[in-house]
From TrEMBL:
The lineage of its organism: Bacteria, Pseudomonadati, Pseudomonadota, Betaproteobacteria, Burkholderiales. SUPFAM superfamilies: HCP-like. Keywords: Signal. It comes from Massilia niabensis. Residues 1-23 form the signal peptide. This is Tetratricopeptide repeat protein.
Length: 246
């Protein structure tokens, strides 16, 4: 009986010592990770994860999830999350839930990562078609019509520019519930894509505005010249004095 007790005590002591060693190594792995020494942290987390430590398994899953293990590997991340969650790790269980949601909302994630084209920023009240501007206007009614069309376009364009500036950067338009489902690589790609979309929209609008303003300049110069010549001719015409006071 005493012999069995000694054996049991030895086993328990061995388990306690092993747990103490793992706890120390886990802290070391966390420290390495915080110092961004990812290869070293990966090596230590892998050792502990293979030994069955659920917290190490969860951290290892996150490293594969965010690409800190060298590249994003969702399959390996899911594997380690499942192992950790099976042992009651709540963070790993939550991560598995996020992975499930990612599959269900894949189209929405891809929309912001690569498909969003900014069409909504150029529609509705921010759709500013170029006004029809003739080469010259010779009638007062037409001059007023063209002037009103130019003013309307200018107001629309100014509103478009102000709105484009207000929504910068476009990455902030990603819905929060979608952003939290993105991994680091997807979020970075989304930011670059959206920045390029905004730049393209801005440059397109600037080119269009320059063309409109060029047409406005030609029209105004020609119209003002005609009006000036017309008024000069009228001023030179003799006044009608056929009716005189007797």
């Amino acid at each position: 009986m005493k012999k069995n007790t000694k054996v049991l005590y030895g086993v328990l002591l061995g388990l306690l010592l092993a747990g103490s060693v793992h706890a120390g190594e886990l802290e070391d792995a966390k420290a390495l990770f915080e110092q961004k020494k990812y290869p070293e942290a990966l090596k230590l987390y892998t050792k502990l994860a293979n030994a069955g430590n659920p917290e190490a398994q969860q951290h290892l899953g996150q490293m594969y999830w965010y690409g800190e293990a060298g590249a994003v590997d969702e399959a390996k991340a899911q594997l380690w999350f499942q192992k950790a969650a099976g042992k009651g790790n709540k963070v790993a269980a939550a991560s598995l839930d996020i992975m499930k949601q990612r599959g269900e909302r894949r189209a929405e994630i891809d929309h912001w990562v690569s498909r969003y084209d900014g069409a909504d920023l150029k529609s509705g009240k921010f759709h500013c078609p170029a006004p029809r501007i003739p080469a010259i206007s010779k009638q007062t009614a037409e001059i007023e019509r063209v002037s009103n069309a130019i003013a309307k376009w200018q107001d629309c364009y100014n509103g478009f520019v102000n709105n484009l500036n207000a929504v910068s950067p476009l990455s902030e338009r990603i819905p929060a519930d979608i952003a939290k489902l993105m991994n680091a690589s997807e979020l970075e790609r989304a930011k670059k894509h959206l920045a390029q979309v905004q730049e393209n929209i801005s440059q397109e609008a600037k080119v269009g505005a320059k063309l409109v303003l060029a047409d406005v300049g030609v029209w105004r110069s020609a119209t003002e010249a005609y009006v000036g010549e017309h008024n000069a001719i009228i001023q030179k015409m003799p006044k009608d004095d056929s009716v005189r006071t007797k």
